[in-house]
């Protein structure tokens, strides 16, 4: 069986074949299915609006009274607060003077204790994006006024580790209860150590509060901050907003399930999609306990699991198919994030998130006002894992106020490049197909120039062969094959071991 090729004659990788089957009228077809395109294409929206400067200042002024009353020292970042012209985002900026225990940069009790300025800026940007979403979901009255309700407004940071997100949220929202849930006791001990200036051991009972679980601890210096030692599934208390930043593998899916179970809003930014494969360990559990309790079946949504295609044919997206998509979704090339290069891999990641979004929509279809959106961090460079799922169940908790979520077409480019690569112009009528999903324009120009120069120098020698160096990598070898093909030159590969593989181009025409 000959290898499958895309719209431009480039041989498709295994996961690209899966994507092609997902969106085609039938397996191995190169005709796009419009229904699949409508139902499976990820649609991004803009993040909820930030608090205005006046609202931010009012929030900080009110919280600062509590900070000073508890003797919480303002943060003194160890290193520059501007990286490549990018200042620390609110609330990690110098003007806010967040207490040291809630800062990311430097030592001296900072919850992050991150020394690298570049890494610290990225972490601050990630946290700032999630804080922005959470504050938009918190009702205005809760942000500014103490509540007389039987239970405080509760935000749960699942897989919260050492409290990178939970601590600043608790500092900014002193009238809200913030619970940091994690399976690693050591991580929670570190959070309490940095906040309270002491290591909390199992023998310390003074700071425990009444709960269904004996593993809930209360911070001494930030009394609205708690930690819960246990699995996401075992947390049984009610809450209003569930949040998680880069919870590994299926942990993000358990966060969504827990929020749906408790009828809470959610802000979920996932990580380690490759760990969703059936043959991979569940890292959230495995790294903490050595066990592998993979319990979620993928794909999760009915739309993905069985898509009614064109001509009454039914596509079945199997677990094996999803494994291929999930495996390549662990995209980590930050420098390519706004380039066509590797667009198919980023498109695969967005499909994993879209399956999650469709799952939440199917689970809340009986709730008329339930809404779920997919957005990206601002800026995208905050992380390669920059997709954020945001959901709410009533109009009262709409983070956009009385408005509807605003679509964000700037996030559609990767998926369109991937479709053009697979199907050509039929994926976007009137647009020119693009083929640079795996390489940059500069790389394509360099390879083309090298081949053109060699052809001019060997115009009369039909037996001449251009041998490219070994160790160029599969991506550039693929580019050489593609360039030679469109120029009508013969080309083939040599070498079995990766270190020996190369591409040869002949002056003879095809």
UniProtKB/TrEMBL annotation:
Matching PROSITE patterns: R3H
One GO CC term on file: cytoplasm
Domain of life: Eukaryota
Pfam families: Methyltransf_32 (PF13679)
Molecular functions per Gene Ontology: nucleic acid binding
Domain R3H: start-end pairs: 441-508
InterPro entries to which the protein is assigned, alphabetical: Methyltranfer_dom, R3H_dom, R3H_dom_sf, SAM-dependent_MTases_sf
Record-given protein name: R3H domain-containing protein
Organism of provenance: Thalassiosira oceanica
């Amino acid at each position: 069986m000959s290898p499958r090729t895309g719209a431009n004659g480039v041989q498709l990788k295994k996961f690209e074949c899966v994507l092609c089957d997902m969106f085609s009228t039938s397996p191995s077809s190169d005709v796009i299915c419009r229904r699949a395109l409508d139902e499976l294409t990820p649609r991004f929206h803009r993040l909820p609006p930030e608090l205005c400067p006046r609202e931010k200042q009012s929030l900080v002024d009110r919280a600062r009274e509590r900070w000073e009353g508890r003797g919480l020292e303002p943060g003194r970042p160890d290193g520059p607060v501007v990286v490549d012209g990018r200042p620390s985002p609110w609330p990690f900026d110098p003007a806010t003077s967040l207490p040291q225990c809630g800062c990311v940069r430097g030592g001296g009790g900072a919850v992050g204790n991150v020394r690298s300025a570049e890494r610290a800026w990225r972490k601050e940007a990630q946290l700032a994006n999630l804080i922005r979403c959470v504050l938009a979901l918190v009702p205005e009255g809760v942000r500014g006024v103490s509540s007389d309700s039987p239970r405080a407004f509760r935000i749960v940071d699942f897989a919260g580790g050492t409290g990178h997100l939970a601590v600043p949220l608790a500092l900014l929202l002193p009238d809200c209860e913030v619970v940091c849930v994690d399976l690693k006791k050591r991580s929670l001990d570190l959070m309490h150590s940095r906040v309270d200036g002491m290591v909390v051991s199992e023998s310390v009972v003074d700071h425990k509060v009444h709960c269904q679980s004996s593993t809930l601890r209360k911070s001494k210096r930030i009394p609205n901050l708690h930690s819960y030692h246990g699995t996401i599934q075992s947390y049984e208390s009610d809450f209003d907003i569930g949040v998680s930043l880069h919870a590994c593998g299926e942990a993000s899916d358990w966060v969504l399930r827990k929020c749906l179970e408790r009828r809470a809003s959610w802000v979920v930014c996932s990580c380690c999609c490759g760990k969703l494969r059936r043959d991979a360990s569940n890292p959230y559990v495995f790294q903490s306990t050595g066990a592998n309790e993979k319990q979620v079946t993928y794909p999760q949504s009915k739309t993905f699991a069985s898509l009614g295609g064109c001509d009454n044919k039914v596509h079945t997206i199997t677990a094996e198919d999803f494994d291929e998509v999930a495996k390549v979704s662990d995209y980590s090339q930050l420098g390519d994030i706004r380039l066509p290069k590797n667009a198919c891999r980023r498109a695969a990641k967005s499909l994993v998130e879209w399956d999650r979004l469709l799952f939440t929509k199917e689970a809340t279809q009986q709730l008329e006002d339930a809404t779920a959106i997919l957005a990206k961090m601002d800026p995208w460079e905050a992380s390669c894992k920059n997709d954020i799922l945001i959901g709410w169940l009533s109009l009262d908790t709409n983070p956009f106020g009385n408005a509807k979520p605003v679509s964000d077409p700037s996030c559609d480019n990767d998926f369109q490049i991937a479709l053009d690569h697979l199907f050509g112009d039929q994926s976007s009528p009137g647009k020119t197909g693009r083929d640079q999903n795996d390489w940059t324009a500069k790389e394509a120009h360099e390879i083309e120039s090298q081949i053109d120069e060699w052809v001019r120098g060997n115009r009369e020698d039909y037996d001449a062969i251009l041998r490219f160096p070994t160790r160029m990598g599969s991506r550039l070898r693929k580019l050489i094959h593609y360039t030679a093909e469109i120029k009508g030159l013969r080309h083939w590969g040599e070498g079995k071991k990766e270190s020996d593989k190369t591409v040869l181009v002949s002056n003879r025409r095809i």
